[in-house]
Amino acid sequence: MLASLHRRQSVLMILIGLVTIFLSGCKIYTFKDISIPAEIKTVKLRLIENRARYINPLLAPTLTNRLQEKIVGQTKLNRVEGDDADWLITGTITDYSVTTSGIANQAASLNQLNVTVQIKLKDNVNQKEEEYSVNKMFSFAASLSLDQAEASLNEEIIKGLTDEVFNRLFSNW
């Protein structure tokens, strides 16, 4: 019985060692590489406008809210209401379109929803402006209507765009 217990402990130690070795080779990506100048203390994010040819009425307000939550939750910036914030962020959805990206048996099999957001960062402290374009593509079966695809992709679209915009604004790549 003692030998059996010793064998189990040895096997457990080997497994722990293997898991440790395996995990040490994995790189976990986080948002710890946030790069905000020390003099920047406040931020205002205006409602993202939707000027695409096709308008998803929920996209702009939902994207604005999620981006606001991410900024407040993952940076030390204080949110303010006035346009005199250290950083003033504005955005516009400029493209929301569908293209065929896969063909099988001479018929569309895969479609792609393309979403482009233009972001403008006005730095009132350092008196400069920067503009970014974020483009994300989301694939869906061609058998789905756009409404069906939007319903199934909604969370992926919002999360993907929020992460992309946040990374462009705050990560020092």
UniProtKB/TrEMBL annotation:
It holds the Pfam family LptE. InterPro entries: LPS_assembly_LptE. The keyword Transmembrane helix applies. PROSITE patterns: PROKAR_LIPOPROTEIN. The chain crosses the membrane at residues 12-31. Keywords: Membrane, Transmembrane, Transmembrane helix. This is LptE family protein. It comes from Polluticaenibacter yanchengensis. The lineage of its organism: Bacteria, Pseudomonadati, Bacteroidota, Chitinophagia, Chitinophagales.
